[in-house]
Structure formats: structure tokens, C-alpha cells
Amino acid sequence: MSSEFIVKSTYNSQDSDRRGPLRFIWSHVRRHPLIAFGLFIGAVSNAGLAALLFYFVGDVYDALLAWNAGELTQQGVRDVVVRVVILIVGSQLLRSVLQFFRNFSSEIYGQRVERDVRDELYSDLLGKSMTFHDKQPIGEIMARVTNDVRELNLFMNPGVNLIIGSGMFLIAPILFSPQITPQLIITPLLFMVAYIASQYHFVQSLHDVAQAVRGSFGDMNAGAAEALEGIEVVKGASQQEREAAKFGNLVEYVYKKFVEQGDLEAIYLPLLIWGISLVVGFSHALFLANTGAISPGDVVRFMGYLSLFGFPVFVSQVAFSQVALGYASARRILGILQEETDLDQNVEGYTGEMDGAIRFDDVSFHYDQGKTIIHDVSFEVEPGQTVAIVGQTGAGKTTLTKLINRTYDVEKGHITLDGRDVREWNLRSLRSQISIIEQDVFLFSRTIAENIAFGVETATQEQIEEAAKMAQAHEFILSFPDGYETKIGQRGVTLSGGQRQRLAIARAFLTDPKVLVLDDSTSAIDSATEDKIQRAIWTAAKGRTTILITHRLSQIRWADKIVVVKKGRVVAQGKHEDLLQGSEAYQRIFARYDNPTKQSGSVPATQAGD
Fold first, then answer.
1. How far is Cα 269 from Cα 415, in angstroms, rounded to an integer?
2. How many domains does the chain have?
3. Which residues on adjacent β-strands are paired with residue 570?
4. Is residue 349 part of a domain?
5. What is residue 544's DSSP assignment?
6. Residue 101's Cα: distance from chain center in Å?
7. Are residue 303 and residue 359 in the same domain, yes or no?
8. Which of 279, 309, 337 marks a domain boundary?
9. Which terminus of the chain is less hemmed in, N or C, by CB atoms within 10 Å?
10. Pick from 279, 274, 350: nearest CA to 316
11. Residues 471 and 327 in one domain
């Protein structure tokens, strides 16, 4: 599987062929056959009508020579000129109309390919597992979603558009020249062979450079995103100059790669080949004219046909460079789409309503290429029971909760919900019935109402307000001029830590989960608000399984069961009174929590931040 969830996009992404960059591009290109037909007809007609122009000019030249030799009257010349002018104007007007449709089709083609690929990529990213997202810098991902996808648009237009159009200009001289005399096909054929050979070498050399250009741009984007995301830390440590210098090095690297591409494009042999072909072709045509094999007008026609090679020579440098960059971008996009994951949606899995009975049975886990975090953990949680997980920072408390909803999968052992292994559950059904409120709350740049209702699309305003009241958030929300319609900044930066956490709790209340996980979710709430929140949590915990990761002594005491974790292992479990008597590890932890200076002052070292 390339994703744990298959997220529906605006078109059937199953049509996408991900077995290679060319197959991937072709699978998107072939979806628009009518547009392709319009592009092809425009390209063929453009070359053919351009060749007719020189054919007509040759007629005028022959007529003038015949008049000069007394073989044609002035009226006869005038008739020829009038006829040719009408044919030229008519043919070139038709050429312009067909060119318009060709360019229009090409632009529509590029835009639709960009739209479809971006939609497919974004949908795939939403379905990727957290293991994937943990390894990928956000800036690098954004470079692929935006700039690399844009390169596929440019791959189509002007890239493929110019290549198809210029390709017809390569064929036209080969088709029209022999009509003058078969001998004149020699120069166009020799040019074609040399042109194809030089372009093959050019594209081969350009491939690696294009890959480096796209890769360097992704690294630069990742560096910028990381610095901006951590701008508060940068400013707080007064490291602006250092970060600017670091970003400058990334920009310099991108610059060097673009220069390498420019150097390669500067050595462009087709220009030289075309120049030599003009000289050879003109010499050959003059020789044939002197022998009487062709007329002077035929020489004009033939040189006009050879001049058609100028269009592919000049535009192919840009076109093939753009195609190479588009191909490199397609490869980078496929690098995401083809990324495998061990998690899957398990569409055929169990979708029943959850009671909330949780069992850890000899569970071990380690993050990708990291040391083992969880060692042989076993404990049970009864339906409707409140369990507090306590331990020092880095003990693995948060990791345990992320295994329940399959944010990550266990390496060894089993976790069951209502007697079923969590891997047997339909993933969407599993996660929709489990709500996790973390210490680092994420809020979207949307209204307060939209943030609370995230996950319950059908929620009414009354339900949203009721959830906010339960989370003790209603009062501060109404203090804003726009109330529930107040739009908050990214990640909720316009709110205090306590306000963000109360909105997250309100969001959990609204989803009405069967299992509620509170990962130190009241750490940023003052003592007065905590008393209100405590009552709200008590209310929310009734009838549902609740797991608390907390340093708050008041919450630990009212838990039905306490699980003590140390270095990824469960060292004790039971009720508060029993653990005080029989667990040395819990006694040490409780002694810290019971310290009044710790409890009311700074957050203790044993808070659940791991």
C-alpha cells in the first residue's frame, strides 16, 4: 500500500499509472483525447500551411523570371501575383485560426494535467501514514505539491506543445522537397539524422542536471519553511544572521545548478547543424539549377523548406529543457506516490460501535530506524474506566496512546479493542471513535466554530456552543467581537495556550468519542480554569473510556487505575493508595507531584511531554 487511507479525489486516481515517470505522465495525458486531437491537428496544419507559403513564393519568382525572359506578359505576371496573394492570405488566416486552437488546447491540456496531478498528490498525502510524514520536511513536500506539479503544466505547454509543433516542421521539408526533384531529399534527411543524434545526446546530458535542479529547489524550500516555522526560536536566540547565511548557501546551490543547466544549453549543436545544412542545401540546389534539373523558383522553394528547420532548432532548446524538468518533477512526485506504508485502511475490517475495552498484550514498538521505545507492555482498561498513565519524560506515555488508534502499528504483541486486534478494525471506524487531545494543540486558520466542528460536518451552532460550554470555552469566545465566527491564525497563534486547549477539548466533546485520550491537555490552563475544566472532564469521562497522561495530581487521584511507565516498561499499575504503599517508582513520582512549589509553579520535569 502507498497510503493507509485511499482519499477520493475529484477524478478516478485509479487511472493513474505509477510504474514510472513516463507511464505516470502518459496516464494523465491520455485522459483528454479531444484536446490532444486539437493540439495535433493544429501542429500538422501549422507546418503544412507554412510550407505552402514558400511553394507560392516560388510560383511568383518563376513568373517574374518568365516575364523577364519575355515568356509571360505583364498581365500574366499580375494574374499569378494576385492568385498567390489570395492563396497566401487565405492559407495563413486558416493557419492562424488553427494555431489559436492549438495553443488554446495546449494551455487547457497543461492546466488540466496540473490540476489532476496536484489533486492526486494532495489526496495521497492526506492518506499517508504518520511514519511517512515524520520523515519528510514540510518545505520539501510543499515544493513537490506546488512547484513540481507546476513543472508538469509547463511540460505540456510550452514543452510538449513546441516539440509536437516543431516535429511537424522537421517532417515538412522531407515531404515537400522530393516533389521538386528526388535528389533534394538528401540534405533534409542528413539534417534529420544529425539533429536526432544531437538532441538525444542533449537530453541525456540534461537529465541528471534537471534532477539536480529540482532537488536543490526542494532543499531550499525545506530550509525556508523550517526557519519560518521556527521564527520565534530564531528571533529569541538572535540567530537571524546565521539562518540568513544558511539559507543563502542553499540559494547559492540552486543558482549553481541552474548555471550548470545554462552552460549545457549554451553548447547546443543543432544551431550549427542547421547552419551547415543551409549551406550544403543551397549549394546542391544551385548545382541542380545550373544543370537545368530545377528552376530558380524551385531553388527559392527548397531554401524556404530548409528554413522551416529553423523553428524546431530554436524552440527545441527551450522545449526539451522544459520536458527534462517536467520529467524530473514527475519522478519526484512519484517518489511520494510510490512510498510504501505498512498501514492500510482495512476497508473490509470491523466497523461496529466501540465499548472501549482496551488491552495491551506484550506490546513492543520502535520508531523507524530508531531504538525500541516500548518494551513488553501489558495492561487492561475496562469500558468506561479512567486510567492515568504517569512516568518521566521520554518514558513512552504518548507513544502508547498513538498505538491505540494505529497512528503507528505495534512491532510485537497485540492491542485489542473490545476483544478485537486494532488491526482488524476498519481504520476510519477505529479512529472516528477515539479522540486524542495533545499538549501541542493544532488549530486551523478557520473560524472558531469551524475548528470546534472539525470532524462533525453536520454539527449545528447549538451543538457547537454546548461543546464549548462543557469545555469552559464559551465565555472567552463571546469576548471576541465576532464570537464563534472569529478567524484564528495558523495553529491558533492568536489565542493563549489555555484557550487553544479548551477549543481542542470542545472539539473532542462534540465528536462524542468512545475512547478519550487527554495527553497533558490541561497543562496550559490556570488553576481557576482548571477547576472548571476538571468538572467538564468528569462529565465527559462518564460512560466512556478515558486515558489521562498528566502531571496534575488532582487528575491522577481520581483515576480508576494508574499505570506507571519507566523507560518504556510498565513497572507498576493499580489504584493510587495501593501504589503509594507498594511502588517505589510511583512514590518518587508522587513525591514530586505532591510538592506545592512544583504543583503551582513551573511545570515539573516529569510532565507528559514525550
1. 65
2. 3
3. 565
4. no
5. S
6. 31
7. no
8. 337
9. N
10. 274
11. no
The model's confidence at residue 57, banded by pLDDT at 50, 70 and 90, is confident
Residue in this structure with the C-alpha cell 468512545, named with its chain if needed: 514
CA dist 38 and 209 (Å) reads 33
What is the secondary structure of 219-286 as a DSSP string? Answer: HHHHHHHHHHHTHHHHHHTT-HHHHHHHHHHHHHHHHHHHHHHHHHHHS-HHHHHHHHHHHHHHHHHH
Residue 346: inside a domain, yes or no?
Answer: no
Is residue 578 one of the residues assigned to a domain?
yes
Same domain for 448 and 413: no
Binning pLDDT at 50, 70 and 90, where does residue 578 land? confident
- The per-residue pLDDT for 82 is 93
Report the CATH number that the domain containing residue 330 is assigned in CATH: 1.20.1560.10
- Tell me which H or E stretch contains 140: helix 138-143
Q: List, in sequence order, every residue forming a beta bridge with 363; answer none if it has no partner.
A: 377
Instruction: Read off the C-alpha cell for 472.
Output: 469552559
Q: Are 372 and 399 in contact (CB under 8 A)?
A: no
Amino acid found at 62: D
Distances (CA, A) of 429 to 131, 268, 559: 20, 59, 27
DSSP class of 488: P
Grid coordinates belonging to 251: 540559494
Whichever domain contains 365, its CATH number is: 3.40.50.300
Q: Is the dihedral of CA 508, 513, 516, 519 positive or negative?
A: negative
- Asked if 519 and 506 sit in the same domain, the reply is no
Between β-strands 545-549 and 515-519, what pairing exists: parallel, antiparallel or unpaired?
parallel
Within this chain, do residues 489 and 601 fall inside the same structural domain, yes or no? no
Cβ–Cβ < 8 Å for 321, 206: yes
Give yes or no: residues 407 and 502 share one domain: no
| Cell numbers placing 594 | 505532591
Distance CA 498, CA 495 (A): 8
Residues 425 and 449 occupy one common structural domain:
no
Rounded to two decimals, what is the model's pTM? 0.74
Strand order in the sheet with 372-381: 372-381, 358-366, 412-417, 420-421
- Which domain range does residue 384 map to? 354-433+515-526+544-610
pLDDT digits (tens, 9 = 90+) for 122-155: 888 888 887 788 778 888 888 888 888 999 999 9
The answer to whether residues 58 and 301 touch, using CB atoms and an 8 Å cutoff, is yes
Q: What nine digits make up the cell of 557?
A: 487521584
| Within-domain flag for 536 | no
Contact 309, 170 (CB under 8 A): yes
> Do 344 and 1 form a contact (C-beta atoms < 8 A)?
yes
Cα–Cα distance between 338 and 533 in angstroms, integer? 45
Higher per-residue confidence, 233 vs 192: 192
| Nearest to 551, CA basis, from 598, 500, 507 | 598
State how far the Cα of 390 lies from the Cα of 552, in Å rounded to an integer.
10
Q: Which of 337, 366, 383 is the last residue of a domain?
A: 337
Return the percent helix, strand and coil in the chain, to nearest 5.
Answer: 65, 10, 25
Do 224 and 278 sit in the same domain of this protein? yes
Among the listed residues 364, 351, 357, 325, the one whose alpha carbon sits nearest the alpha carbon of residue 215? 325
